[in-house]
Amino acid sequence: MSQIAPALVPLLVTLPLLGAAIALIAGRHRRTQVVVSVVTLTAVLAISAILLVVVDAGDQPIAVSVGGWPIPFGIVLYVDRLSALLVVVSSIVLLAVLLFSVGQGAEDGDDDTPVSIFHPSYLILAAGIFNAFIAGDLFNLYVGFEILLVASYVLITLGSTESRIRTGVVYIVVSLVSSILFLAAIAMIYAALGTVNMVQISERMSELPQDTQLVLHLTLLLAFSIKAAVFPLSFWLPDSYPTAPAPVTAVFAGLLTKVGVYAIIRTETELFLDNDVNQLLMWVALATMIVGVLGAVAQAELKRILSFTLVSHIGYMIFGLAIATPAAIGATIYYMVHHIVVQTTLFLAVGLVERRAGSTSILRVKGLMKAAPVIAVLYFIPAINLGGLPPFSGFIGKFALFEAAAEVGTPIMMVLMVGGIVTSLLTLYALMRAWNLAFWREEDDSAETEARISYLGGSPGGVDTERRVIPKIMTASTAGMVAITVALTIFAGPLYDVCIRIGDALLQPVTLTQLEEDVQ
Predict the structure, then answer these.
(1) Which domain range does residue 337 map to?
(2) Residue pLDDT, tens place only, 296-340
(3) What's the Cα-to-Cα distance from 477 to each of 36, 101, 223, 431, rounded to whole Å?
(4) Directed axis angle between helix 326-357 and helix 81-108, to 10°?
(5) DSSP notation for 482-517
(6) For a tag site, which of 2, 182, 340, 394 has the least CB within 10 Å?
(7) pTM value?
(8) Is the pLDDT of residue 59 over 90?
């Protein structure tokens, strides 16, 4: 198995791109597009699972020089435990959301997600995400970002409604600013060090003056923080994600910001390990947690509540990264995996709520516990998981982060632990408040409801839609994701062990000699 593993690595990117081309050619044949998309993502899931087993068992990453070019001239695809794990999780999420969108498209006639456009764009998005996770040099990482961003521009504006076009423009402008900063940082690094290969950069970075290192460091951090929606650079996210179709919102919330977090983890642990800005990251993490969750508490619309909790929980990942110990990095990776799955699941559940009730405003939606008990369960389980109630994975990840912070024991760590606990409690409050109003509340006087809405400045859920039938495949895919969130708890031990091994490896960067030995 280990002998054929290197040949499988390029397929993580080429298969989705090939699938996108076939789906585009078959634009008039919906079933063909669906089959191509499902088969492609299933194949990537199988390949990534094989690669994860190989790199974890062999305790050695897989590096593939595309086209046989020598380092540093060629493109190196690099698969270690971290990248393999994230590709596995991403392919699971992408496949589940795809099935959800297939059910929605079949029922609605693809009004919200035109199938001729959706499937090629979705597979290109997947290719960009996978390419970013296995990129061995900064420029290829930039290419991965641009591939997924170009596809996301199309997906976020599907349906061409006024609100989607407006928020899409904001999303595009913010993304372009981030890309320009990233490209400028790459240019400066190449001018200073003569390479964009991350292993070579890590070896040569110490040759630069500390001030120069700091400028390069902060430029990359700024670019990635915009993509990851780190406060105060998260202003664009709560308005951009809720307007997109439910499947698009779910996959964006689960994956796109995590690609930015992944880039921060890679650069902080590999390129700038000796030029840390951990104190800055700690305060940024605290602000991200608190400001994000306060925004969630103030909302009266489910998608916006989840968008703000998405921002706040990015703070936990920055918190763990700033602690900079193997245990903290391992806990961060575990929490990252947890958040990808749980946040996606919650957005899918809210998509079901929207179809069943015709709105996502917690002031309008009510009585769903009796009307739709299955949806109630599908929302409740990931909600309490995200809120950090034991014994779920959210509690395990947060406890591991707090334990790593307590081992360091500095005053700022204590402050961050308190901030993390407050954020967790407020997250639980915001999600359970929504649960109480949307699911438990009985039908009440319509005049009283309208008075509440008027007090908050109009319809908080935007323009309500008609109630629509929920196809079984939409419920099944959401239930499957809920089962995976539970599996993260049941199999927390083996998964957490893998994450700890990732943390140990990230703080012991690979040398150029080792990379050249690993290159196939």
Answers:
(1) 5-518
(2) 999 888 999 999 999 999 999 999 999 989 999 999 999 999 999
(3) 18, 10, 34, 22
(4) 0
(5) HHHHHHHHHTHHHHHHHHHHHHHHHTSPPPHHHHHH
(6) 2
(7) 0.91
(8) no
